[in-house]
Amino acid sequence: MSFRPLPFPRRRSGRRILGVPALLTALLLAMLAVLVGTAPARADDRVRVELTSITPAVTAATDTVTISGIVTNTGDTPLTGVQAYLWRDQQVRTTRAELATTDGPVGARWVTRYAILGTDPSGTLAPGQQSTFIVSAPWSALGIPARDGVTMIGVQIRGSYGEGNTTLGRARAWLPQDLGPQTTPVRLASVVLLASTPSRVAAGTFLDDHLAHEIAPGGRLDLLLRSAAGSGRSYLVDPALILSLQEMAAGYELTDGSAGAGEGDAKAWLATFDTLPTSGYRLPYGVADIDLLAGIDHADIVQSALDPAELPADVAELPTAVLPADGLLTRRGLATLATPTAGAGPSAGSSPTASPSATPGKPPIVLTARPAEGSGTTRSAAPSYWTTAERAPVVTYDPQAFAAGPDAGGSDAQQRQSLAAVDQLDALAGRPVQVRLITDVATAHADDLDTSATRVSLSSLTEGSSAPISDALLQAPPSDEDDQTRDVRRAATSTTGLASMFTDPGVAADRTWRATAILASTQWTGAAATPLSPAPDPTAASEAYVAYRNLQRDRVWQITGGDAVAISARPVLLTARQDTQFPVTVTNNLPVPVSVRLEFESENAERLHVPSVDIRTIGAGEAIAVGAVPRVEANGNYTVVARLTTPAGTVIGVPEEIDVQATQAGRVGWILMIVSGIVVIGTTVLRIKQVRTERSHA
């Protein structure tokens, strides 16, 4: 089959994988962009301008605007007559859409005052030399229209590099205006996403060690955990992440046989996680894509992924939340969140006694992306949350909350002004709250810069004003299936009924619905590119996804069509007693105990019948002899097919044809002849010895 490199066109967001080198590079670039500022704003600039302070953050009519910063000569020519001027564009923006129109520069510098830069009165800057500056002006003198909104200010650096006085560089930032009566500020709900690309493939076994890098001091998940611990913040956590870290803390290995390196950091991360405030929510296991699963008619897997059974205690009792792929909510995806009705059947791959419908809970809160202005929305006051027929409250987060300012990826001061501008325009639009989704190092740092906001918890939003969900918030599902959807459909179908064969509920979940939920994860392609973060590496994402898909596919095939659990028999002449048994050996080649049923199908059931035998437990790597008592009604030669099924009735393994000779009707004389004969016996014995030897060395 063909496999398009991720990200899939219909799913562009989530916390997705980068290769380890690419991950470290991406994080470094993101931090440098936010913490240090960018290179010169224009290719022909001779200096780099970093704004270090802009006061006030929101100006009133009587204020004096002051900008401080640092100028660096980035060329190889001395600069003379270097001066810093305050600049403004004299346009007031009143909508979020207008913040995107930052091409320029436009406007004019305020020439009444300026700052001379350099180490002498002539304003000379040698190559590589830096100089600080402060420029200021009364707002009333800048000629900016007197109305509430956002204007653009900045500095221009003028001077000469031997060809006359010219603009050497510039830096710009937003300046909100609140001229009165004072606008009611919006409340802020910052939500930190604690999730990562899937890598756990079985208990204590991982595809790669990228999680060790993410939880190490200074790693992405380490910094996000610190952000989640901040005052007034809420968090969303993937239960699959917690389960993975608990197994890492106990010691783990990679699929290539090497030992993992994150045991100590996993213990430290979990210890900090346990101290987080109670403002957290657990996501569906693996952050499964609810729309994808709805599209293949597997709402049961969504319900399993939300079920607290068998989850680590750290997260099992947290309330639930759902984050749709790309933040795009569909009507069919929303329908998967309806509380199962009493008497609903078991979920796909589950045992009849382990249905999530047995423990219905409170519907999850749904976080969906807020439509941009002009997408069918109005500027009337929005509710705190939206109500649905599924009883799941919907809260909209702002995907452009961290939109870059006029100079993309500017300094902390510029980023702080961008946040203030967004807040001001939301307040003017009558929005009661802004919800920010914190997904990476860059957005976590930017959110930390906003120290003046009134922070509220995510849970408090569902206690405010509400309205029925608007059609503008619901997206149309994709019209065709992509490769991920087809993979998930196959996985869901092939694992149906397998859960009942595993005696350990955790193993049963790993081998069935958990594996399917992970394939349906929104976390496979790394972080979506944002103004503050670089784009992920789609090649690395594709390789990780394909490796996981192929491994799980092979494991299922070994059970359903291979020799994970195998039948063998030896030729034997049975006596003619009425209690003569039908001897078969069943070998479990899996590393976990299983429970199966041995069934026999005769070509002539009226003359020869062999009853099924339930085998409650076969240990890992063990073989047991099974005896069935046949019933013969007539002499003759017959073919009996022996096959294995799960207790739920799903056929597994490779069936065996057995030739049977029956003599003396009512009294039995049997000769079982199997194609493999003595070779099968020797192979079975050898395999049992190998498995026991491997386990003794483990």
Low-pLDDT regions:
1-41, 341-359, 375-379, 527-531, 572-577, 665-681
Tell me the Rg in angstroms: 33 Å
Largest sheet: 6 strands, antiparallel
Kindly give the count of domains: 3
The percentage helix is 25-40%
Structural class: alpha/beta
Cα distance, first to last residue? 37 Å
Number of discrete helical segments: 17
Beta percentage is 25-35%
Query: What global shape is seen?
Result: elongated
Tally of strands: 33
Short description:
The protein has 698 residues and is α/β, with parallel strands linked by helices. The chain is built from 17 helices and 33 strands.
Question: Any overview of this molecule?
Answer:
- The protein is α/β, with parallel strands linked by helices and 698 residues long.
- The protein is 25% helix and 27% strand.
- The strands form ten sheets. The chain has a six-stranded antiparallel beta sheet. Strands 8, 11, 13, 19 and 20 form a five-stranded parallel beta sheet that branches.
